[in-house]
Design brief:
- The protein is mainly α.
- Helices cover about 85% and strands about 0% of the residues.
- Helix 2 packs antiparallel against helix 5.
- It is globular and about 55 Å long.
- This is Putative manganese efflux pump MntP.
- Probably functions as a manganese efflux pump.
- It comes from Oceanobacillus zhaokaii.
């Protein structure tokens, strides 16, 4: 292996973990909803697929679309996370309120799409830089899938200790992460 390849691999691994951290945060909150292991596996797999597809689409469009769209996707993802987090906090106090997004069906696709929006904008820049596309896509997908699984399993454990307050904690994590994304 050449020194250049090793440096590129290390950079891609760090980028993949960084991209997967929003999936980890969201998964930590989702894990507090007492999900079954089968559902956790499906959610993680779906998030991993979206973290493969979104940067791939970004790479394909990287030479066509300007860098301005990256800011719009970050803002959209931030606002959605803030909204979901606020709704989770509100529903913890109002037992009659329904959850905004359930990790089932269309809700699962929305969750996976939301946490993979930042990987789309990264894909745009990677398409211009000429990075090893297949390697980047595999690393992004596997990293986000693994971090999602870890987050949901940790969320299940925390829920057992916190009970009703776990939904407030999960909502606060999402709200705070969305706010951090919006302000950065």
């Amino acid at each position: 292996m050449s020194e250049y390849f090793v440096r590129e691999l290390i950079a891609l691994i760090f980028m993949a973990v960084a991209l997967g951290m929003d999936a980890f945060s969201l998964s930590l909150a989702m894990g507090m909803q007492e999900l079954r292991l089968k559902r956790i596996a499906l959610i993680g797999f779906t998030i991993g697929i979206f973290h493969l597809l979104m940067p791939f689409i970004g790479i394909l469009l990287g030479k066509v679309i300007s860098g301005q769209i990256g800011n719009m996707t970050t803002i959209a993802a931030s606002l959605l996370l803030i909204g979901i987090g606020a709704q989770m906090i509100f529903s913890a106090f109002n037992h009659e309120a329904k959850k905004l997004i359930h990790p089932f069906g269309l809700g699962l696709l929305i969750v996976a799409f939301t946490v993979s929006l930042d990987s789309f904008s990264i894909g745009l820049s990677l398409g211009i830089s000429g990075v090893k596309t297949l390697l980047a896509l595999i690393l992004f997908s596997v990293s986000s899938m693994m971090l999602s699984w870890i987050g949901m399993l940790l969320g299940r454990k925390v829920h057992g200790f916190l009970g009703k307050y776990s939904e407030i904690l999960g909502g606060s994590i999402l709200f705070g992460f969305g706010l951090m994304l919006l302000l950065s």
